[in-house]
Description:
alpha/beta, globular
Amino acid sequence: MEKQEIVNLYGKKIVVSIKINDISSRRISIVGGHIYMTLREPYSIKDIEKTLMSVLTEKKVSTLYSTPYYTDYYVDILGIRRRLVDLSKGQERISKEDFVISNQHELEKKLKNLELDIIKSRVEKYQALMNIPISYQVKITNMRSSVGKNYYKKKLLTFDRILIHFSLDIIDSVVIHELCHYFEQNHSNRFYNILLKYMPKYREVRRKLINGERQ
């Protein structure tokens, strides 16, 4: 179970997702504009801010687009902010663009299923385009330190649950990246030559994902 905190770094509010683990040591990663930390209890916001400013420069923090992917009032889906309608709270749908849920517990499940459907279709599209004969199993999970992984021997592709909040071209950049590992199980120049063949703007798009830009 993760807890979200809002911290102030160099005068900017940043979303930090905290995972408590009493065994492992402190870990920090940045994915989708959010900072992910594994900490031991107890912790304080002041300690988190001090730690982060000791490892992150003001310039790096300034590049982060760090807002929650969803709140009680909205949810970002495919890079578009949509009004969140919770029927259990007596809210009513007023637009076809509203994202409707029966209750708050349904939100993450519905987002996960939607992402799974979308990514499966993108995997199929690019497999055909790239002439990849493998039939991959696709899973959506919480990855924290990365947004995708190709388990080549298992014929399994896993993707982070945050991807549903980003635009389709950003999702495609992750899908194509992982499929390219069919040809090269590394990040050599040859790997990136293949990757850039299928997505010439990969580095530009990937930078958006790292910084948390939804589109």
